[in-house]
Amino acid sequence: MFDKVLIANRGEIALRVLRACREIGIATVAVHSTADADAMHVRLADESVCIGPPPAAESYLNIPRLVAACEITGADAIHPGYGFLAENARFAEILEGHGITFIGPSPEHIRIMGDKIEAKATARRLGIPVVPGSDGPIANTAQAASIASAMGYPVLVKATAGGGGRGMKVVHAPEDLDAAIKTARAEAAAAFGNDSVYLERFLSAPRHIEVQVFGDGRGSAIHLGERDCSLQRRHQKVWEEAPSPALNASERAGIGAIIAAAMQKLKYRGAGTVEFLYEDGKFFFIEMNTRLQVEHPVTEMITGLDLVIEQIRVASGNTLTLKQSEVTFTGHAIECRINAENPETFMPSPGKIEYWHPPGGLGVRVDSGAYQGYRIPPFYDSLIGKLIVHGKNRNEALMRLKRCLSEFVIDGIDTTIPLFARLVKEPDIANGLYNIHWLESFLKKPAQSHSSMP
Ligand code: ADP
After folding, report:
1. Residue 291 a catalytic site member
2. Gyration radius from the chain CA atoms
């Protein structure tokens, strides 16, 4: 096991990793930009190193500074969290070169899965069902037009290097294809420095269902069931739950077995998530994330496993704690992403938290680095915390969530809590009847048609 882990991240995930390290007796090093000197992960870490000014490119994304921070503090491993450098194969490779363990998969697997076209080809080869589309990048509009007409409209133009829903355009008619390709390319070039795009059939009403996997890098791999992340705004997840209200036990075991077998063949190491769109009883692979996900707590709540501790164990050369037959699923868990944003316009709302009162009680977990008096800096993602509830069934989890939302008080900034208070009262949500478009159409309805606030 490692003696000291450096956490190359900030916010709630830095704290999440810190807590896991502390429980198993590993010393922690926090890194932070000058904007985060007061952050909770910095206050709680055993040591901390300021790695630069607020812009992420000069701090959290600056590889030489992170390596130097390891050397100064004697950290023997880095946990990257999610975002920032978590899926940067070059970073993982550089750390290896410096004798620092990257707590994550091999650079080769990060690279394959980071290129969506290569990821799809790999998935297909491993026996995973994929979304129909162009088998490679689009060379020009004429080629795209012939693939699209063979596949049938609507189609989706997606960035090969995509992430966070950027560089993605739906096309309903042939005459719009050229403009959509140009816009997607421009967005992808700006966001990822790579303007390569490809085509996929646009599924009209799927659910987003993803399977959590874990491998030891030596051919053992298990799945930990699925999460339903269909409630999205602008292709970004807002609410996640496990298990999915749409799957039965045999569908779960079926897709889980396919994925676990694929990860065994790949000799995958660490935590990963295989994402699917699910429509009419069929699964279609869209991508694999080679890291811990924001929504990992819902899986932890129903399996009783600590995924960060598992990541650390596997990265330090241990085998998996569990065999597939020992994984059990208990009850139902729901996570709401609490963003510092206006709940109607979704404009970011950085600033000082004047009052902070999180909910508590049985089956309630709040993962957040925020506290009363904390000033949310304007430079980073607006996620300030996650409210996770667990119940013995979905209905109990929903009742608990409703109770928690009425208890949660955050003053001084806007948050998305009022949005969840509305969602939890919607009959479609109560019945689990939603797909990836449900939330966008709900948000377009005039506010008075929504149920009133408590
Ligand atoms: P990113 O890496 O940018 O997050 P993903 O490929 O994971 O992109 O897709 C993000 C979301 O976009 C999905 O959860 C889904 O809502 C939507 N999406 C992606 N591919 C398709 C598709 N072929 N048809 C319909 N919706 C899609």
Report:
1. yes
2. 21
